[in-house]
Structure prediction request, 650 residues.
Amino acid sequence: MKLVLHLFRRATRIQVKRMVMTVMALTWGTISIVLLLAFGEGLQRNMARNQKGMGEGIVVVWPGESEKAFQGLPAGRRIRMRPEDVQYALENIPEIAAASGEMRQWGIQITYGRKSVNNRAFGVEPSYGDLRAHYPEAGGRFINAADMRERRRVLFIGNELRDELFGEGGEAVGKVVLLNRIPFTVIGVLKKKMQMGMYSGPDANRVTMPLTTFAALFGRTTLNNLVYKPADPARTEAVRKQFFAAMGKKLRFHPEDTRAFYLWDTVKTQGMMTNILFGIKVFLGVIGGLTLLIGGVGVANIMYAVVKQRTVEFGILMALGARRSAIMGPLILETLFLTALGGLFGIGIGAALVQLLGWLQGMAKSEAMQFLGKPTFSATLAIVTVAILGIIGFLAGYFPARRATSIQPAQVLRYE
Amino acid sequence: MNGNGRGLIELDDLRKVYDTGKTTVEALRSITLTVRENEFVSIMGPSGSGKSTLMNIIGCLDTASSGSYRLKGEEVSDLDRDRLAEIRNQRIGFIFQNFNLLPSLTAFENVELPLLFKGAPTRERRERTEHLLGQVGLADRMKHRPTELSGGQMQRVAIARALACDPDIILADEPTGNLDTTSGKDIIGLFEELHHAGRTLVVITHDQAIARRTKRIVHIQDGLITSDGPALQG
Ligand SMILES: Nc1ncnc2c1ncn2[C@@H]1O[C@H](COP(=O)(O)OP(=O)(O)O)[C@@H](O)[C@H]1O
Ligand SMILES: [Mg+2]
Prediction:
């Protein structure tokens, strides 16, 4: 070992210029892999968060039209869901963990003081809060069972709508607003969230009230749609079948009549999204890896040149009894040292750039930048980078060193 | 045959063919040779006759194409790399025509190298290196680099280096070929001293005067031994 270090120290003295270039190439490679992976990571985290914006692992159900004649009823009949059907579904399908009916009305005028906005109103049940990620800002709450029972005129409002009516971040809870001239008390404001998936508009600029209040106010008896959540996300397909079977019995359509309901299974779409994101990450990683590989090839090239230049020296050392490892060791150590140096600079500069970009992004308010997510430098990422660097460093040293020591000393010491 | 004791080097029907792709050269055709302990042998022959090839094989710097080479009874042709490195390190001292010193190292460091490869402790390395450089008359040149030394001095450093691990045999391929007459005589004088101290030496030379100072002369031509007998002491 001492010998290896001894020879290594001498080896590092020469080829300074080449080494600087190598280290630069490796630094560049490392920076690019760090940046690409950091962006991939940021994108993924952002997407994952945004996906949760509409709620996690939920299924949205819209009623359709029967396609098959059933029990004397003709095909092409409109299926109608009533508020009590939600309870029926919960009771008859144990694998459904939670469910809520949903009613909707467009073009509602909402007034506070002299300010007035036109938007959508929804009627939902208390479980909707968790299902659809309608979490209140501090000081507020979502609709509860008592609101439902007593058909209270209470309103849970979107954060952007609040900003419009009460000024940005203005105090809204406890205030009375007019909804088509009818007074409602605000009980909560939606906590700001990134929402990627949506149907009938974003959650941030709508108002939500108890389903019972909504039905009475607008004289409705049928639901626009229903939201349910399977207890086990892996069993959404089975739960869907159970849902068709149970509702078919209740609403009288054929249990295999696929047109009776239209379903949006977010578990499936989220799974797909996860795969796409993983693909993007792998893609970015491969590009970064290739850049790094180019750096690695550069190192190997330099090592080949070094080795070629020093063949006579190695021949002499072998003639004096140096084992293969005594020559290969310092060479590999040398490349590892170079890669470590390049990697260190690269990770340092890369991490700093990630910080800087994240900061710049925080400043820029553009939607596109927010969608891209904040580039994130994680521990896993650092480990992956270091591992790739280590492998490249080792290989770039190993093969030239092996070649240098695979000849007979006499071959390089021939002298005429 | 000269010398006493058992065969230190035993070559039997040794052949070496160089295959350079286009042509093949039969450098050694059938060499059978025994060198005993404490022999002082010179090898002579015209240029290209295969002397260096033979010496490289004896020194384990190259391998034969066929035939047997036993060093102190041990068959060398089927040893692995590391074992060969060990033999080169501890059993053989090789002296080249062009010295083959490492230019970036001092005389001391050059002589120390084989001891480093052997794994000798620092103190032993220093004492042995100093002793050997003193023996070849370079006690005052230890910190000099090869470029700061004359040809004769460089070859003496190389001899000290060859002796570092106390080898069984000293091999020298035209050791005086790059030296002036006086320096050459010094080197041969050193060899004679080593011979009298009990060492075994094989020296390739062109020089009749040098060959006559050894005890046995082997003549090679076209890869074959043409004569082998006692040197006529002049
Ligand atoms: N590495 C080699 N490749 C091809 N031919 C070689 C090689 N080494 C030596 N030879 C050839 O083998 C023959 C013997 O060479 P060598 O042993 O160096 O002769 P000497 O030392 O007696 O001058 C020569 O013809 C030489 O050209
Ligand atoms: Mg020769």
User: Anything to note?
Assistant: The beta strands of chain A are 59-63, 96-112, 115-124, 154-157, 176-179, 182-189, 206-210, 225-230, 261-265.
